[in-house]
Amino acid sequence: MKISRRTILRGAGVSLGLPWLEAMAATGDSTGKPPIRMAALYMPNGVNPWHWKPEGTGRDFQFSTTLKPLEDLKSQITVMTNLWNENSKGGDGHYVKEAAWLTCQTIKKTPGEDIANGVSVDQLAAQRIAGQTPLPSLELGVTPVAVGVDAVVGYTRVYGSHIAWSSPTTPLARELNPRSVYERLFRASSGPQGNEAKMDALLLDRVLGDAKKLRGQVGTADRVRLDEYLSVMRSLEERVQRASNSQQRTWKPRAAMDPKAIPTERPADHAEHVRLMLDMIATAFQTDTTRIATMMFGNAVSNVSFRFLEGVSAGHHDVSHHQKNEDKLRQYERISRWHVEQYAYLLRRLQSMKEGESTVLDNSMILFGSALSDGDRHSPRNLPLVLGGNAGGRINAGQHLVYAEDSPMSNLYVSMLDAFGTPVERFADSNGPLKGLLRA
Amino acid sequence: MRFLASVALTAVCAWGAPDFAGSQKFLETYCKNCHSGKSAVGGFRLEKVATQQSFETAAHDWNRLALRVRNGEMPPKGLPAPDLNAREEFAKYVDTTLRSTACASGIVPGPAPIRRLNRDEYTATVQDLLDIHLDIGHALPIDGAGGEGFDNAAETLFLSPLHSEKYMETAKLAMDFAAKEYKSRERILVAKPGPGVTPDQAARKILQAFLPRAFRRPVTEADLLPYLELFRAARKSGEDFEPAIFFALRGALVSPLFLFRTEPVDQVDNYALASRLSYFIWGSQPDELLTDLAASGKLQDPEVLRQMARRMLKHDRSWNLARRFTEQWLHTRELSGDKAPDAKLFPEYSKDEELRGDIRIQPQQFFREILVRNLSLLNLIDSDGTVATSNFSKHFGFKLAVRANASKQPQWVELPKDSNRGGLLGMPAVLAVSSYPYRTSPVLRGTWILDSLLGTPPPPPPANVPPLEEPAAGAAPTTVRERLEKHRANAVCASCHSRIDPLGFALENYDVIGRWRTEENGKPVDNSGEMTDGTKIQGPAALKAALMQHKDLFLRNLTNKLLGYALGRGLTLRDSCTVDAIVAEVKAKDYSAQALIESIVLSVPFRQKERPKEKKSS
Question: What is the ipTM metric for this complex?
Answer without folding.
Answer: 0.86
